[in-house]
Amino acid sequence: MGRMESKPVNLTEALASFDDIYSPRIVTRMNDYDVRIAHAKGDHLWHTHTDTDEFFLVLDGVFDISLRDGQEGAERTVRLRRGDVFVVPKGTEHKPSSPGGSVLMFEPSQTLTTGDWHEGEIPDHVDSTTGHEL
Question: Which CATH class, in words, describes the domain spanning 25-124?
Fold first, then answer.
């Protein structure tokens, strides 16, 4: 894909242009990174990104990220609200879920939404993708 046009992208308008959940749209690129937005509702799935941290900014609603930390794999959940940012460290098993919300993610281009490892079958409502053009 060629370089994106150098013009502003309004996130509110971009989010309004699609309804799919857990199916990120690439709004712009910077260096070798995608800036992606997605609607979230229900559970994603446990997965890991081996080689990259994953940045989340909640644009609207509530977004929860369950994490399995440390050797014992103890689970904890962080609850993010509008305006909150959080980084999932690389190699950390995590599972997003939401009662309804939208997020902006910042991650290397070609990063798969379901990670390098995921637990179980990918649910129908989760799009296993490296992102779609807006």
Answer: mainly beta
Per residue in 70-125, pLDDT (tens digit) is 777 789 999 999 999 999 999 999 999 999 999 999 999 999 999 999 999 999 99
Distance in angstroms (rounded) separating the CA atoms of residues 89 and 130: 19
Sign (positive/negative) of CA torsion 8, 15, 103, 2? negative
> Which segments of the chain are extended strands (E)?
25-30, 33-43, 47-48, 54-69, 74-81, 85-88, 93-108, 117-118, 132-133
User: Which three-class secondary structure state does DSSP give residue 14?
Assistant: helix
Q: How far is residue 61's CA from residue 22's CA, in Å, rounded to a whole number? A: 14
117: amino acid identity, one letter? W
Judged by DSSP in three states, 51 sits in: coil
Which pLDDT does position 66 carry in this prediction?
A: 98
Token readout for 125 is 């409502």
> What is the residue type of 106?
F
Phi, psi for 95 (deg, rounded to 5): -140, 110
